[in-house]
Specification:
Shape: globular
Largest sheet: 2 strands, antiparallel
Mean pLDDT: 74
Strand order of the largest sheet: 1-2
Strand content: 5-15%
Radius of gyration: 20 Å
Helix content: 55-70%
Oligomer: single chain
Low-confidence stretches: 1-9, 90-115
């Protein structure tokens, strides 16, 4: 009985875990960068994620779920940091003295090679539209559309039901479509005027 319980809580062997966990490094960094909008904060967030993951590797029961588990840790670290940031706003020294600064939540969009010119023109509008989405909707959208997670995996990462994932995704896509419709029309993308 004791050996069965020990096997249940032991988790994957460190070399196996390390190989799988480090294989997700680039995806985690890209996701973190899209959430926080700058390289230094993204690197810090990913580093903290890996420190937590390696510290608690024994809690992971199924190595096949490692990638989703890492994304959940990263998301939870991001939420914790945002709560701390809101509690203590950053201070900037300006000519007029100290003022509280609200860190911008710019997100990075993936450039599309086949439409390089349109992407270059649309990028600022897309970044702005992504930045205006509420964090839960933006995170859901990024996990689904850019990272390729299933609804079930996103629900696990964000610790919410699949129905909530679907709802957030639909609302995020709808809000982006509404915000980007004028820019798309200006660039000749989408439905033209009806006759």
């Amino acid at each position: 009985m004791r050996s069965r319980q020990a096997r249940r809580t032991r988790g994957p062997a460190p070399p196996e875990f390390a190989a799988v966990a480090l294989g997700a490094l680039l995806s985690l960094y890209n996701f973190a960068y899209r959430l926080v909008g700058n390289e230094a904060d993204a690197e810090d967030l990913v580093q903290d994620t890996y420190v937590d993951a390696f510290r608690h590797a024994a809690q992971l029961r199924n190595l096949a779920r490692c990638r989703a588990w890492l994304f959940r840790i990263l998301r939870n670290r991001r939420v914790s940091r945002e709560r701390m940031r809101r509690a203590r706003p950053e201070l900037l020294i300006l000519e007029g003295g100290l003022e509280a600064a609200d860190a911008s939540m710019a997100s990075d969009a993936l450039p599309q090679l086949e439409r390089a010119v349109v992407a270059r023109l649309a990028r600022p509008a897309i970044l702005h539209a992504l930045a205006t989405l509420p964090e839960d909707m933006r995170t859901t959208l990024l996990l689904c559309d850019l990272e390729g997670f299933t609804y079930a995996e996103i629900g696990d990462i964000m610790q919410c039901p699949i129905g909530t994932v679907r709802s957030r995704l639909a609302r995020a896509r709808g809000q982006l479509m509404r915000q980007l419709a004028p820019q798309a029309a200006a660039l000749g993308i989408g439905k033209g005027p009806r006759a």
